[in-house]
């Protein structure tokens, strides 16, 4: 009986392995969904839709973008963590994948344990902007203004853990002035209220702000990169504008649920690599103030290393600020 059980168990293991190999061989046979854990119209959504369109051509199946916003991106990430690891449900997330590990006391997933990796996509600069009728004309003036009106000025963000939240937190630390923050369920609605003058200022990715800056519907003050952004050459860096040390970009990566077959991940990595050298993607990224990562960074190993390093980098910053969410 024991021998029969062992043999049966072994047969089941081999059968499962064979099924997995067969699935990987025919993958993809239907549409693939990339979950964006933020609302439509935001910067991560924009990046995802450009990449998804190109990956569709390589994979031969439609790559659909689904927005699952809320809780600083953790709702969408949790959904993908619990999905079948069959390659048909992916996650494109930004730096919030790393900061959520410290920000949230009750996280429904483990960033380093519940996902497999496809590769990095892009690293987007941030830019400080304000409503069109903000009196300040440069970053120095903006800092003076918000300090003088710290009890009434409002800073918009896309929710705890969002890129705009992190930038605002670093800005307030740098100027040593706490401000009233107004969280939204995504950058899209935050931008809408900024344009309408319901909030005063925010810091967000160039992928979401470049169009508004060029149209003159918002005031722009400085970018968070070491060098100026080619698509916004007249904007100084934070250091040039008088606030050194506030430098960081918002990186994006593609994940799958843990347990995805290596053969499937390899096909997704290949599609991502081809998307990042797609002339249309490169041109659109440039218009938005960013660029695709190198081929060496668009790999599972590079994304895993980046996530581990960023969790370690942001944990003490968040702990020092004392900002947590349930």
Task: Describe the protein's architecture and organization.
The protein is an alpha/beta fold and 326 residues long. Helices cover 44% and strands 18% of the residues. It folds into 2 domains: 2-123 and 251-321, Bordetella uptake gene, domain 1 (D-Maltodextrin-Binding Protein, domain 2, 3-Layer(aba) Sandwich), CATH 3.40.190; 125-223, D-Maltodextrin-Binding Protein, domain 2, CATH 3.40.190. Strands 1, 2, 3, 4, 7, 8 and 9 form a 7-stranded mixed beta sheet that branches. A two-stranded parallel sheet has the order 5-6. Helix 2 (43-59) packs across helix 8, helix 2 crosses helix 9 and helix 4 (96-103) crosses helix 11 (300-321). It starts with a helix and ends in a 5-residue tail after the last helix.
CATH topology of the largest domain: D-Maltodextrin-Binding Protein, domain 2
Helicity range of the residues? Answer: 40-55%
The class by helix and strand makeup works out as: alpha/beta
* Amino-to-carboxy terminus distance: 51 Å
Q: Mean pLDDT across all residues, rounded?
A: 91
Put simply, the count of helices is 11
Per the principal axes of the C-alpha atoms, what is the gross shape? globular
CATH homologous superfamily grouping of the largest domain: Bordetella uptake gene, domain 1
CATH level-1 class of the largest domain = Alpha Beta
**Percent in strands:** 15-25%
- Written as H for each helix and E for each strand, in order along the chain, the element string is HEHEHEHEHEHEHEHEEHHH
Q: How would a textbook summarize the main sheet? A: 7 strands, mixed
């Amino acid at each position: 009986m024991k021998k029969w059980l062992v043999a049966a168990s072994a047969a089941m293991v081999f059968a499962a392995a064979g099924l997995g190999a067969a699935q990987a061989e025919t993958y993809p046979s239907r549409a693939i969904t990339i979950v964006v854990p933020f609302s439509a119209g935001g910067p991560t959504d924009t990046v995802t839709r450009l990449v998804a369109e190109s990956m569709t051509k390589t994979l031969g199946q439609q790559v659909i973008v689904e927005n699952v916003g809320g809780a600083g991106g953790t709702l969408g990430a949790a959904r993908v963590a619990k999905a079948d690891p069959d390659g048909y449900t992916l996650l494109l997330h930004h730096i919030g994948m790393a900061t959520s590990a410290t920000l949230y006391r009750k996280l429904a997933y483990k960033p380093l344990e519940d996902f497999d990796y496809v590769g990095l996509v892009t690293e987007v600069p941030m830019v400080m902007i304000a409503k069109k009728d903000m009196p300040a004309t440069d970053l120095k003036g903006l800092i003076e203004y918000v300090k003088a009106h710290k009890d009434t000025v409002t800073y918009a963000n896309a929710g705890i853990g969002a890129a705009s939240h992190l930038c605002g937190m670093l800005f307030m630390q740098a100027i040593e002035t706490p401000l009233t923050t107004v969280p939204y369920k995504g950058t899209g609605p935050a931008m809408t209220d900024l344009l309408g003058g319901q909030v005063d200022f925010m810091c967000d990715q160039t992928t979401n702000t470049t169009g508004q800056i060029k149209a003159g519907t918002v005031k722009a003050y400085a970018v968070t990169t070491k060098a100026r952004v080619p698509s916004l050459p007249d904007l100084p860096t934070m250091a040039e504008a008088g606030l050194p040390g506030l430098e960081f970009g918002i990186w994006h990566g593609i994940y799958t649920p843990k347990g995805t077959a290596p053969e499937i991940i390899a096909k997704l990595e290949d599609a991502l690599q081809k998307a990042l050298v797609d002339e249309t993607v490169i041109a659109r990224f440039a218009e938005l103030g960013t660029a695709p990562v190198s081929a060496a960074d668009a790999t599972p190993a590079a994304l895993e290393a980046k996530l581990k390093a960023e969790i370690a980098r942001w944990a003490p910053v968040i702990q020092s600020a004392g900002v947590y969410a349930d």
